[in-house]
Write a structure and sequence with these properties.
The complex is a heterodimer of chains A (230) and B (95). With 230 residues, chain A is mainly α. Chain A has one domain (39-228): Cytochrome c oxidase, subunit III, four-helix bundle (Four Helix Bundle (Hemerythrin (Met), subunit A)). Chain A is 81% helix and 0% strand. With 95 residues, chain B is mainly alpha-helical. Chain B is flat and about 50 Å long. The chains are: A mainly alpha (230), B mainly alpha (95). The interface between A and B is large, with 47 and 47 residues.
Chain lengths: 230, 95
């Protein structure tokens, strides 16, 4: 990344200088062999991956919208069975976790290693809290006989069964993303503690944080659609 | 494409400010949807959700400080999403 060459040196026709730049070039290659990273390429790759995630969840939201139009009353009855207070709590938890992840990137850029680890720890703690609440939500529903393929849903109106199938599918895939994101961030925190993620090389943390923000982004839409508007 | 030097650092205070706005918008969504507004409820809730998503993308995900390529790609992804949602509804609504 560091250029030892002066900006104008390449245009100088002096033979000596040309030799020097030649050696510079070789030295650059040797030096960068270890540390050269395509920073922009790494970030571009992450964003392209996030776009595919966006389209994945977009498809699920599209299914929701089409079935909401077909079964407005069944969706309303089913949706009101979800606890919006738990949903709101999880929204606050995820927003806070995102703040913590964004702050961790800032801390890494400033070279505050201990703070990076603490902030990622905060994000992971929030992720754990989110999953615990999710667990209680799901187990309460399952305890009431509401799960895909349950007798109660089979014998009930078809719209309600569609609603809960979509609910389990969407929050399930989202929950999986929460778990993967938390594991990813835990690994990055270890890297940060050992100094592998630092002020001059933090793309790993930045990409991990981007993934985490996507998880938050999806929940921002799940919360009103499933818990509030019905 | 070495843009390492140009990286913008967003301060803790600014990030906390964004988080506060996100919390206020969440409270607003809950408040609005507790009132009986009929179909407008969905539109209002989704508008606020889009605003929140925008804040997360622009500040938390640093999109404000990214180059033209990433911005256009994001735009392209959102347009693609809009097209497939739009065309599906064109089919569903006028069948």
């Amino acid at each position: 990344m560091k250029r030892t060459r002066a900006p104008g040196s390449a245009s100088r026709s002096d033979c000596n200088t040309r030799m020097e730049t030649g050696f510079d070039f070789i030295r650059d290659m040797e030096m960068n062999h270890q540390e050269q990273k395509d920073y922009f390429g790494a970030k571009l790759g992450m964003w392209l991956f996030l776009f595919t995630e966006l389209l994945l969840f977009g498809g699920l939201f599209l299914l929701y919208a089409v079935y909401l139009k077909r079964y407005p009353h069944e969706f309303a009855t089913a949706g009101r069975q979800l606890d919006w207070i738990l949903g709101a709590t999880n929204t606050v938890i995820l927003l806070t976790s995102s703040l913590s992840a964004a702050m961790a990137v800032t801390a890494a850029q400033r070279g505050e290693t201990r703070r990076v680890v603490a902030l990622i720890g905060g994000t992971i703690l929030c992720a754990a809290g989110f999953m615990v609440i999710k667990y209680f939500e799901w187990s309460a529903k399952i305890g009431h006989g509401i799960y895909p393929g349950s007798e109660q849903l089979k014998n009930g109106p078809p719209g309600e069964s569609v609603f809960f199938s979509l609910y389990y599918m969407t929050t399930g895939i989202h929950g999986l993303h929460v778990v993967i994101g938390a594991l990813l961030l835990a690994w990055i925190a270890l890297k940060a503690r050992s100094g592998a993620v630092n002020a001059s090389d933090y793309i790993l943390l930045e990409n991990g944080a981007l993934y985490w923000h996507l998880v938050d982004l999806i929940w921002i839409f799940i919360f009103p659609l499933y818990y509030l508007v019905l | 494409m070495d843009r390492h030097e140009q990286h913008h650092i967003i301060g803790y205070r600014k990030l906390t400010g964004i988080w506060l706005v996100l919390l206020i918008l969440t409270a607003l969504t809950v408040a609005i949807t507790r009132v009986e507004l009929g179909g407008y409820k969905v539109i209002a809730a989704l508008t606020i959700a889009c605003a929140k998503a925008g804040l997360v993308i622009v500040f938390f995900m640093h999109m404000k400080y990214e180059g033209r390529l990433l911005r256009w790609l994001l735009f392209l992804a959102l347009v693609t999403l809009a097209i497939f949602i739009g065309l599906t509804f064109f089919d569903v609504l006028y069948r």
